[in-house]
Specification:
With 218 residues, the protein is an alpha/beta fold. Helices cover 51% and strands 16% of the residues. The longest helix is centred in the C-terminal third of the chain and has 17 residues. It binds cytidine-5'-monophosphate (C5P). Catalyzes the transfer of the enolpyruvyl moiety of phosphoenolpyruvate (PEP) to the 5-hydroxyl of shikimate-3-phosphate (S3P) to produce enolpyruvyl shikimate-3-phosphate and inorganic phosphate.
Length: 218
Amino acid sequence: NQVPVLTVDGPTASGKGTLASELARRLGFHLLDSGALYRATALAAQDAGVSLDDEAALAELAGRLALRFEGQRVYLAGRDITDPLRLESTGGMASRVSVHPAVRQALHQLQLSFRRAPGLVADGRDMGTVIFPGASLKVFLTASVEQRAERRYKQLISKGVSANLPQIQSDLRLRDERDANRSVAPCRPAEDAMLLDNSALSIEDSVVQCLGWWRQRR
Ligand code: C5P
């Protein structure tokens, strides 16, 4: 497959989603929000009454996810799940679902299918290490846990959702720990990834940096 891929990996609330969608928009590329697939699997499990520890049943659900992306909206088996998909609680469930190797395997092919001309920007935890190891540019985004918690807090408050900063920080630490230390596809930079710490950068600064790297890619 000669279609170029740019991967953006990094921990929870590092700003990956925003950066990736902006890069996709400016490059005119397709976008893969791989976290949405794990989140949707978690919601499907909840609907079906499947335990988040039942690896085989979860993998089965993941393997036949009827997901449809339409502009900004996401549908699961025809139901609009855009709002529940973004809930913190759904992210927490997704993190538990994603530790199972069979689930990751079941979602592998689906992720590859997003690679279509003229190009793809893929965001997640293992885009550069596992799913698209031959990507033309791999970015690994980081920011301090304090910064990430602060951003998530402001985001929630601005949406009118009540939030507690210390609680968000401890949830983030827990999720970082689980994502970084799982045995399969832990959240780590690929050896050839460009590291970008955006703690003190605006979104525009990060976009400009990545577009610069993209132009110089091998
Ligand atoms: O990025 P997002 O917060 O939507 O991801 C939700 C969870 O899905 C993450 O905490 C992580 O455990 C899992 N995930 C993953 N691999 C990916 C994307 C997300 O394990 N490529």
